[in-house]
Amino acid sequence: MKVSDLSTRLGFEAICAPAGDADVTDGYASDLLSDVMAKAGDGSVLITIQAHKNTVAVASLIGIPAVIICNDRPVPSDMIEAAEAEGVALLRTPKTQFEVAGTLYPELRG
Q1: CA-CA to 35 of 20 to 30 Å: which in 29, 49, 60, 106?
Q2: Cα separation, 2 vs 58, whole angstroms
Q3: pLDDT tens digits for 19-36?
Q4: Does this model's pTM top 0.90?
């Protein structure tokens, strides 16, 4: 699956879509950034409610190409700026983390 598929096929709102279309190979749902740093893998999409620029920093550090912000949380401008600078896609949805994980699981592991 490509990052662009997250919005085009699965309907997540694209807040920031950097150039290129990285592969998404796995998913990881967590709101604890230290947990994400320890357990999420390169190529994962991060499913979270943490809408701040530190989330982008962690994603960039590990090689996460996309972050999905759940529960329609507002995305601050400094997070968008950080995502653009780091080449991390930001997406948003009114769905819960549970719903998003359930949507992505069969797409990535099916």
Answers
A1: 106
A2: 20
A3: 779 999 999 999 999 999
A4: yes
